[in-house]
Structure formats: structure tokens, C-alpha cells
Amino acid sequence: MAAIRLGDVAPNFTAESTEGTINFHDWLGDSWGILFSHPADYTPVCTTELGTVAKYKAEFDKRNVKVVALSVDGIDSHHGWINDINETQGTTVNFPIIADEDRKVSELYDMIHPNADSKLTVRSVFVIGADKKVKLTITYPASTGRNFDELLRVIDSLQLTAYHKVATPANWENGDDCVVVPAVATEDIPGIFPKGFKEVKPYLRMTPQPNLD
């Protein structure tokens, strides 16, 4: 099976979800997207994850990001599990969960890693841009819950660097200084980044985040 790599067009699919039939590319429209998988319904770590995503929906909306989850269980199971998530996590699930009983989407996105489990999906994450191309992939084992603050941080970086000639350094947070990309000559920096810059080394030039007032 071919791996999905950064820059690839995210494979399209049609699948049933808790919010009806989804054609993935049509559902994304002009939005960014997160597709993330869960080993199974009624599992403890997944319950906390989906509750967290529901609480973060306003943050994803601010970034024009749609979120969709997936596991290999069926629609009825998903709906029952949503009741548990809402009850135990003090929230309301407000995004679709794909029912992938035939594992069509799981196999399309290489979400089943046989040496980890031959039937259940690992915790895959795909961040997809408005151009339908894969911008980020992260794979966690079933035992480790995801950090959704980190996903928001990464999306902030991806969206910033998609439209400005900067990269983000280690541990960057929204509002921190950025790295001027090597393709920009030092003499051209003032015309591109009027907030100024600091040359640490000829190859390491820092500038204030360009998309903030």
C-alpha cells in the first residue's frame, strides 16, 4: 500500500457518518480539514479525545478547519457512544464520526498498522489544506491520547507559512517571532517584512510574525 505523503492530494471517498453521507472533498469545500481515526468506540482514551475536540470546535472554526473522526464501528454504535461522550465529558459532539465498518477509508489512508493491531485503526491524524493537499500527518499508538493544543499550534504555523515567506522555529507559539525563509535574500527583507528583522547568522534571520497587527 502506498503511503500518503506531504503534498499529496488527500484521497477522496464517500462514507456514512453520524451526520449523513459524506463525500470528503465536497464536504471540505474551501475549508481546511482534520481527519483523525480512533481504535474503537466505547474506549476510554477516545472518549476523552472526542469530548476535547467538541470543546475546541470554536477554535477550529476560527481557523476555517472542519474536523471529522473515524472508527471501524457502525453508525448505531457511534450514536450510542456519542451519548456517553456528551455525558462524561460535559459537552455535545458537534462534528461527524465516520462509520468505516468495511475499513475502506482506513485502508485508503493506511490507518491500520498490522504489527500494532490487525483490525483496529491507530490514532492517525491528517491535516488537509483548502487545496485538498496533505499538510501534516501524525501517527500515535492506541495507548497515547493526542494533544489538540499542539494540533491548533501546527495549524497556525501551516496557515501562516502558506501565505508568508516565513517558517516557525522550535516551540513556536502564535505571536512569536518567525524565521525568514532562506529563499529571501537579506537585502530584500526590509521590503517584505517592514516590522524589521534580526540577523543571528546569515542563514538565521528572525522577524516579528507578519500577519499580526
Automatic annotation (TrEMBL):
The family this protein is said to belong to: Belongs to the peroxiredoxin family. AhpC/Prx1 subfamily.
Enzyme Commission number(s) from the entry: 1.11.1.24
Source organism per UniProt: Flavivirga amylovorans
InterPro entries: AhpC/TSA, Peroxiredoxin_AhpC-typ, Peroxiredoxin_C, PRX_1cys, Thioredoxin-like_sf, Thioredoxin_domain
Domain Thioredoxin, residue spans: 4-160
Pfam family name, one: 1-cysPrx_C
Entry keywords, A to Z: Antioxidant, Oxidoreductase, Peroxidase, Redox-active center
The protein's name in its UniProt record: Peroxiredoxin
PROSITE patterns linked to this entry: THIOREDOXIN_2
Record-level Gene Ontology MF annotations: thioredoxin-dependent peroxiredoxin activity
